[in-house]
DNA sequence: ATCTGTGCAAACATTTTGCATAGGT
DNA sequence: ACCTATGCAAAATGTTTGCACAGAT
């Protein structure tokens, strides 16, 4: 992950093990984990890392434009290394969050601009439903 | 507002002055206020009403299907007496939240169902931008 | 040597809860 | 009289902050 270290430094951020681990975990997993989940998972490889560092790092990476914060409506935020605006869908049964195709909303912004004269800048779009895995089977909530 | 009292009782809820005031305020204003804003506003007419009552009432009304909770991404929730699913847009300058036409997303749910096999149940859709009033003029954040 | 990042603990803000009292039916 | 709703205070939760130390350049 040399590329990440470079991108961090471009943003004036030091490439510390904690930051690399957090970003890498976010990038690899498609789990959209919360700060708490990140903390619990990375504790194994980084036993001294504190929860405050996780929050501070997530904040730094967000400000540097390297990740986005999701507000699915739970008690806590989730984080996504994919900074392209795209809708998400959460399964109300297993609570997992999945990405949706950005094309779903591609003409909505311009339509809003035309009908409301709003200058549209960004979006947060969440759908809720039952995922294929949970349809039929009554699976439990998953930790992601 | 006799109709409201009846609707409350249909849901097994007592039609107390506090509940009526909160619901009426929500219904009349298109402000999508937070619990705190509701509290501060209704304090004038209901000086003894506590913040806890506002929260409890909002929870009861939500469970009764008489309002919906919005999660615009601020520290606190906002509330909407219009329970029909519809997108919202927030002005990043004055922080006001406006309703958008539900038709904007009318075919998105079925498209999601087709492409992901998700059974879509609900949605939370927020756009962000600069409202017509704030374009050009640098207005301050409004309390709503 | 400087300067940023980390880790710990305390602080913070919103929301929830417990419990005694008030008020409606 | 009963039973739910209210109001107050305390608790709970996720997140932020202050500060001293560690680590990198």
Structure description:
Chains A, B: It holds the Pfam family FUR. Chains A, B: This is Transcriptional repressor. 2 copies of one chain form a homodimer. The first copy, chain A, has 144 residues and is of the alpha+beta class. The first copy, chain A, folds into 2 domains: 1-83, Arc Repressor Mutant, subunit A; 84-144, Ferric-uptake regulator, C-terminal dimerisarion domain (Dna Ligase, domain 1, 2-Layer Sandwich), CATH 3.30.1490.190. Helices cover 35% and strands 17% of the residues of chain A. Chain A contains 5 helices and 5 strands. Chain A has helices spanning 2-10, 17-28, 35-42, 51-63, 108-116; strands at 68-70, 78-80, 88-91, 97-99, 119-130. A 3-stranded mixed beta sheet of chain A has the order 4-3-5. In chain A, β1 (68-70) and β2 form a beta hairpin. In chain A, α2 packs across α4 (51-63) and α3 (35-42) packs across α4. The longest helix of chain A is centred in the middle third of the chain and has 13 residues, at 51-63. Chain A is flat. Chain A starts with a helix and ends in a 14-residue tail after the last strand. The mean pLDDT of chain A is 92. Chain A binds a DNA duplex (25 and 25 nucleotides) through residues 13-14, 16, 18-19, 34-36, 48-53, 55-57, 59-60, 75-77.
Number of helices of chain A: 5
Quaternary structure: homodimer
Q: How many structurally independent domains of chain A? A: 2
Q: Would you tell me the overall average pLDDT of chain A?
A: 92
**N-to-C span of chain A:** 24 Å
Largest sheet: spatial strand order of chain A: 4-3-5
């Amino acid at each position: 992950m040399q590329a990440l270290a470079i991108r961090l430094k471009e943003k004036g951020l030091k490439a510390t093990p904690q930051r690399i681990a957090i970003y890498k975990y976010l990038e690899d997993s498609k789990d959209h984990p919360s700060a708490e989940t990140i903390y619990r998972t990375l504790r194994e490889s980084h036993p001294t890392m504190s929860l405050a560092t996780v929050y501070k790092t997530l904040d730094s990476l967000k400000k540097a434009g390297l990740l986005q914060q999701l507000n699915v409506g739970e008690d806590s935020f989730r984080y996504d290394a994919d900074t392209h605006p795209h809708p998400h869908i959460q399964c109300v049964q297993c609570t997992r969050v999945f990405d949706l195709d950005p094309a779903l909303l591609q003409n909505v912004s311009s339509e809003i601009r035309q009908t409301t004269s709003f200058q549209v800048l960004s979006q947060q779009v969440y759908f809720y439903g039952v995922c294929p895995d949970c349809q039929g089977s009554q699976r439990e909530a998953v930790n992601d």
